[in-house]
From TrEMBL:
First and last residue of the signal peptide: none
Aspartate/glutamate/uridylate kinase domain sequence ranges: 5-237
An example Gene Ontology CC term for this record: cytosol
GO terms classed as biological process: terpenoid biosynthetic process
MF annotations from Gene Ontology: ATP binding; isopentenyl phosphate kinase activity; kinase activity
Name assigned to this protein: Isopentenyl phosphate kinase
Gene3D superfamilies, per the entry: Acetylglutamate kinase-like
């Protein structure tokens, strides 16, 4: 693995699924993202892919209120169901990559990460490192995980991607989201403009998300993005059509996160 050629890419749940329709994939976006990853892989990039839950994970996790914790029979059932649906979505993502000869391998997030108090407590990246050393593309995802104090809780893909990028010393971290970047006001507002750069002390009006999202939406994404940027990772947030340009640092309409 060459850190200078290592990129961590987070595909937002709203990009690859229709969050207004439970268990519905946005096939065109998934194909676009897969094609970009196939090209980057062919050019020698080492890739870790993380995807969100979208309309697969979030509705079930919200139904059982897993973010609140607890060990009741209902919570145990909810953990199991959420894991099932995330595995289904992950299989579809891996399938799209395999069609393009990308050696994608599913890596179950809840098998390598543990939360405490709703926050990531520890993660083992040994297997992931060995996969990268063999030119595999690990595919992880936001997941319901064991929580040492609450029983169960949610580990968002945004947090997972940032932690992996920092611990592996990745060159870049790319957040792909449906809005195509960070805006001065909620996208769709008459005077909303795409912010080409964003720093932690910038004053923003950050809008909510469409559909059900139990992971904190854009606010959490920005917090994780700033964390990675402060630790030397080049971080970008943008749309699915600009994945390659964000990874390579080329000019395009997306947001660059400054430390």
């Amino acid at each position: 693995m060459n850190p200078a050629m290592l990129t961590v890419i987070k595909l937002g749940g709203s990009v690859i699924t229709d969050k207004s329709k439970p268990y519905t994939v946005r096939s065109s976006n998934l194909k676009t993202a897969s094609a970009a990853l196939a090209k980057l892989y062919g050019e020698g990039y080492d890739i870790v892919l993380v995807h969100g839950g979208g309309s697969f994970g979030h509705p079930t996790a919200a139904k059982y209120r897993l973010h609140e914790g607890g060990l009741s029979p209902e919570k145990v059932r909810g953990f199991s169901e959420t894991r099932y649906w995330m595995t289904k979505l992950n299989t579809l993502v891996v399938e799209h990559l395999l069609r393009l000869n990308v050696p994608a391998v599913s890596l179950q997030t809840s098998a390598i990460a543990v939360n405490s108090g709703g926050k990531l407590s520890r993660i083992s990246l040994d297997v992931l490192r060995e996969m990268l050393a063999r030119r595999l593309v690990p595919v992880l995802y936001g997941d319901a995980v064991i929580d040492l104090s609450r029983g169960f809780s949610i580990l968002s893909g945004d947090t997972l991607a940032a932690r992996i990028a920092v611990e592996l010393g990745a060159k870049s971290l790319v957040y792909v989201m449906g809005a195509g970047g960070v805006y001065s006001k909620p996208p769709g507002s008459p005077d909303a403009r795409l912010l080409r750069e964003i720093a932690e002390n910038d004053v923003l009006t950050v809008g909510g998300t469409h559909g059900v999202d139990v992971t904190g939406g854009l606010r959490e994404k920005l917090a994780e993005a700033f964390y990675a940027a402060k630790n030397g990772v080049r971080v970008c947030i943008g749309g699915v059509n600009f994945i390659e340009k964000m990874v390579k640092g080329e000019e395009a309409p997306y947001t660059v996160v400054k430390a």
